[in-house]
Amino acid sequence: MFVVEYHHVDDVPLAPWRVIALDIKTGARKWVSDQLGYIHSLAASPKDLFVASASGIKAYDIAVGS
């Protein structure tokens, strides 16, 4: 499962956003993405997660986050 985390920072219009991968059975955190700008969409294939954000489009290996 993937969730988007946002940390509001006063006077910072594009405060840090991240994607967190959770183990669906235990809820344990598997990996966390690097800091991104505003995340506006996610798409997944069987092996990759694609994140479109204000920082651009990034692909992450679903198993390890790299």
Give an overview in words.
The protein is mostly beta strands. It is built from no helices and six strands. A hairpin with a 2-residue loop joins strand 5 and strand 6. The protein is globular, with a radius of gyration of 12 Å.
Keywords:
66 residues; mainly beta; 50% strand; three-stranded antiparallel β-sheet
H/E element order: EEEEEE
Helix content: under 10%
Q: Which strands sit side by side, in order, in the main sheet? A: 1-2-3
- The count of helical stretches stands at 0
Q: Output the structural class.
A: mainly beta
Shape descriptor reads globular
Report the mean per-residue pLDDT as an integer.
90
Quaternary form: single chain
Strand content: over 45%
Cα distance, first to last residue? 16 Å
Cα-atom Rg, whole angstroms?
Answer: 12 Å
Question: In terms of per-residue confidence, which ranges show pLDDT below 50 for 5 or more consecutive residues?
Answer: none
Give a short account of the largest sheet: 3 strands, antiparallel
Short précis:
This protein is 0% helix and 50% strand. With 66 residues, the chain is mostly beta strands. The two termini are 16 Å apart.
SSE diagram, text form:
Blueprint: E1 2-6, E2 17-22, E3 29-32, E4 39-44, E5 48-53, E6 56-61
